[in-house]
Amino acid sequence: MNNIESATTMNIVKYDPAKIWPEILERIANGESLAAALRKPGMPSYALAKIHLRSDPALREAYDQAIEDRAALLAEELIELADTPIPEGLDPASRSAWVQHLRVRLDTRKWIASRVYRQLYGDRVEVSTQVQVDLSAAMEAAEKRLQAQRNRVIDV
C-alpha cells in the first residue's frame, strides 16, 4: 500500500501503513480500542484508519485477529477482577461506589467477550440445522392407495 496522505489544518501528513499498523495492532491486542491507539502522537485520524482497513484485506484480517486477542485478554481479566478483594476501610458509600465501578468493568468485559467470541462466551448457543425431507415416496404410496380405492368395485 502506498503512503496515504491526510490533510490537516497546517500541512499534509504522510502515514506509512507498514510502519504504523504493527504498533496499532499490538496496542489493540493488549486491550486498547482503535480510538485509544490512534490518540498517540503521529497516528492517523480514526477516519483515515478506517479507510486503511477497508482498502487492505490483509490489514483487515490482522485487525480482526487483534480484536479477538483483545477479547480473549478481557475475558481473562474477568477472573482477576472477580477475585479482587474490596479495599479495607471504605465507608459504606465509598464501598458501594467501588463495587459499582467493579461491576461496570466486569460487565463491559463480559459484553465485549460475548460479542467477539460468541462461540465461547455468548449468552446463548445457536444451533442451526437443515433437514431435507423427501416426501415423494410417501406421496406415491398415497396416490397408489387412492387409485386402488377408486378401482375397487363395491358389491351390493
Overview of the molecule:
The chain has 156 residues and is mostly helical. It contains seven helices and two strands; from the N terminus they run ββααααααα. It has a two-stranded antiparallel sheet with strand order 1-2. α1 runs parallel beside α4, α3 crosses α4 and α4 runs antiparallel to α5. The termini are far apart.
Topology (SSEs and partners):
Elements: E1 4-7, E2 12-15, H1 17-29, H2 34-38, H3 46-55, H4 57-82, H5 92-116, H6 118-121, H7 136-151
Antiparallel strand pairs: 1-2
Helix pairs in contact: 1-4, 3-4, 4-5
Please describe the structure with a list of short key phrases separated by commas or semicolons:
156 residues
Please give the count of helices: 7
Q: Evaluate the radius of gyration.
A: 30 Å
Report the sheet with the most strands, covering strand number, pairing sense and barrel closure: 2 strands, antiparallel
General shape: elongated
Produce a short descriptive summary.
The chain is mainly alpha-helical. Helix content is 63%, strand content 5%. The longest helix is centred in the middle third of the chain and has 26 residues, at 57-82.
